[in-house]
Design a protein that fits this description.
- By secondary structure, this protein is mainly alpha-helical.
- The protein has four domains: 2-61, no CATH class; 63-118; 136-226, P-loop containing nucleotide triphosphate hydrolases (Rossmann fold), CATH 3.40.50; 232-298, P-loop containing nucleotide triphosphate hydrolases (Rossmann fold, 3-Layer(aba) Sandwich), CATH 3.40.50.300.
- Helices cover 61% and strands 11% of the residues.
- The chain has nine helices and seven strands.
- It has helices at 2-13, 18-24, 28-61, 67-118, 120-129, 139-162, 204-225, 245-260, 272-277, and strands spanning 167-171, 186-190, 195-198, 233-237, 264-268, 281-285, 292-296.
- Helix 6 (139-162) crosses helix 7.
- The longest helix is centred in the first third of the chain and has 52 residues, at 67-118.
- 10% of the residues are buried.
Length: 298
């Protein structure tokens, strides 16, 4: 009976006979390995079942997400993203425009440097001509100073004679105050002291002689430069009353020399001595009915 049951069990298991069973049977070592693998699998299965239970418990504790709110948030973020992309595009356009402007400015700056290099000499010449120089003298004042030197040279010849060889007029060469334009200020060289001093330090009579000398010197220079034009008339208004007798004599002699040289000299004055030295006079006399002009001839 046992053999019959064994044979039936082999047939049920799919073995043709005992030989096939023995051929398919594993060795004891292999069987032990399989047993160990089964036990390890059982342990892993139990651990997995435990983790599954814990995960299920955690999942039951979780709240169901608010999908409408999440979708609304997603849509809002999408709108913000679209706005950011549009802003980025606009900023990129502005950046490109600024880069283009920068390139243009760099080109203009390079051209400006070239122009500045080419015209540096002319620019400096313009500054000097406009008074940016150690003497604070513009080109116009330089030209005027050159003409003034000629006038002063002619005036000094007359002033030396009228001042009995003491005074000569000259232009101030060194500018004291650098804040103001210079080049046309006058000073007097005093041969008695051997030094110079400002023209405004002359006394009233000396100042009149200097002014008269300047007027005569200017007339001489203008006449010499005017291409044959003659300045035949000269009027002197007052100033004689401040002169001492000797200076008055020199001034009158100078005017008489001019008259003898062919010029008409008119003197406006209240000095009595002049009446005796001038032959032709137009006297203005006050009266009850008003002032009267009387012509006195020699």
């Amino acid at each position: 009976k046992r053999e019959a049951a064994f044979v039936d069990a082999l047939a049920t298991a799919g073995f043709a006979g005992a030989d096939d069973y023995r051929a398919a049977s594993l060795a004891d070592d292999a069987t032990c390995v399989l047993d160990d693998a089964v036990r390890a699998f059982d342990v892993d299965l139990a651990r997995a079942a435990e983790w599954r239970q814990r995960t299920a418990e955690i999942g039951q504790a979780l709240q169901t997400p608010d999908m409408p709110a999440l979708l609304a948030a997603r849509d809002a973020v999408a709108v913000q993203l679209e706005a950011a992309i549009r802003q980025r595009s606009e900023l990129a356009a502005v950046r490109d425009a600024l880069l283009q402007c920068k390139g243009l400015l760099d080109s203009l700056a390079a051209e400006g440097r070239d122009v500045e290099t080419r015209y540096a000499v002319l620019g400096r010449l313009s500054e000097v001509a406009n008074g940016n120089n150690p003497r604070r003298m513009t080109f116009q004042r330089f030209v005027l100073a050159t003409l003034l030197d000629e006038v002063l040279e002619a005036a000094s010849l007359r002033l030396l004679r009228m001042s009995r060889g003491r005074y000569a007029l000259q232009r101030v060469r060194e500018q004291g105050d650098q804040r103001v334009a210079g080049g046309l200020d006058l000073e007097v060289f005093d041969h008695d002291t051997g030094g110079t001093r400002p023209a405004n330090t002359l006394s009233g009579g000396e100042g009149f002689l200097a002014s008269l000398s300047l007027a005569l010197g200017l007339a001489d220079v203008v006449q010499s430069r005017a291409g044959g034009i003659q300045l035949d008339t000269l009027f002197v208004d007052e100033g004689f009353g401040t002169l001492d007798p000797e200076s008055l004599d020199f001034a009158i002699r100078t005017l008489l020399d001019l008259q003898q040289a062919g010029r008409l000299v008119g003197i406006i004055s209240h000095v009595t001595e002049l009446r005796e030295r001038i032959d032709v006079r137009l006297e203005v006399r006050p009266g009850v009915a008003g002032s009267q002009a009387v012509l006195r001839l020699p």
